[in-house]
Specification:
Two copies of one chain form a homodimer.
Chain A: H1 3-20, E1 27-32, E2 35-41, H2 54-65, H3 68-72, E3 75-80, H4 84-92, E4 97-102, H5 104-112, H6 120-126, E5 132-134, H7 139-145
Parallel strand pairs in A: 3-4, 4-5
Antiparallel strand pairs in A: 1-2, 1-3
Chain lengths: ~150, ~150
């Protein structure tokens, strides 16, 4: 199993953990110099706050714990490709390497019949920022976590 | 003074109030059937959280207080045109009328020498959603609030 798969699988475990607490099944983590320095889960239901996605929670916690220059060197792993809101938050933190399990296209097809969406690489391109955006990685395992989605 | 100016001026007052508390000078409010039903200020410094923009705070509070169908009928007034993160949050709440004082172009020119940015109407277009995006309204008054920006 390569390194990407190890960390992607860990993000999927965070997604499963979120779902087991009654939240939406999404998880994310930050890797710096081959070490996981922060993890986060979706807390939308627990916090009664539609913005508490795993990636937003991850960046907020990381900005409190590490200086900007460390964040800029990090790779973000996530169980599903980030939404537009989270993309903006991740971009603002200066992170330019993002690895995901489920593609946003797959998510969008599942939850909304494939409505319009904007992908992370499209946003970074419009903002003139180079990005390494890798996935889907282990997408079947990532999709499996959706079976635990409370109320769906 | 027309209706837009009344509410835009109120959003600028919220921006001034935020700055007086040591936060960034941004404010926003929601109007439903000619009544202000919610107001919010930027709380980035107070909450030590870079995502606590006025518009994000406004939507989170409003989603707790009102059903989705009320939010969709609202007009959002803001002291500065919303950033990409807030645009995603506003779009997700189904709000399609946004009136602003300072343009995002003016803000971007002031704080970052005019770096790349993506405007709200560009995002809504990419998402296939019609939007009424009006401004700048009273931009000189809106810019005046920036003079209170703590630490700038």
């Amino acid at each position: 199993m390569n390194q990407h798969e190890t960390y992607v699988r860990q993000s999927i475990e965070l997604a499963i953990s979120a779902a087991r607490k009654g939240n939406h099944p999404f998880g994310a983590l930050l890797v710096h110099e081959d070490k996981v320095i922060m993890t986060a889960e979706n807390t939308v239901i627990a916090d009664n706050n539609s913005t508490r996605h795993a990636e937003l929670n991850l960046i907020v916690k990381s900005e409190r714990a590490f200086p900007p220059e460390v964040l800029r060197e990090c790779t973000l792993y996530t169980s599903t490709a980030p939404c537009l809101m989270c993309t903006a938050v991740i971009w603002n933190a200066g992170i330019t390497r993002i690895i995901y399990s489920v593609s946003y296209e797959s998510l969008s097809r599942l939850i909304s019949g494939g409505q319009n969406y904007i992908s992370l690489d499209q946003i970074y391109r419009l903002l003139g920022t180079e990005v390494e955006f890798v996935g889907p990685v282990l997408e079947m395992e990532g999709l499996e976590a959706y079976r635990l989605w409370p109320g769906r």
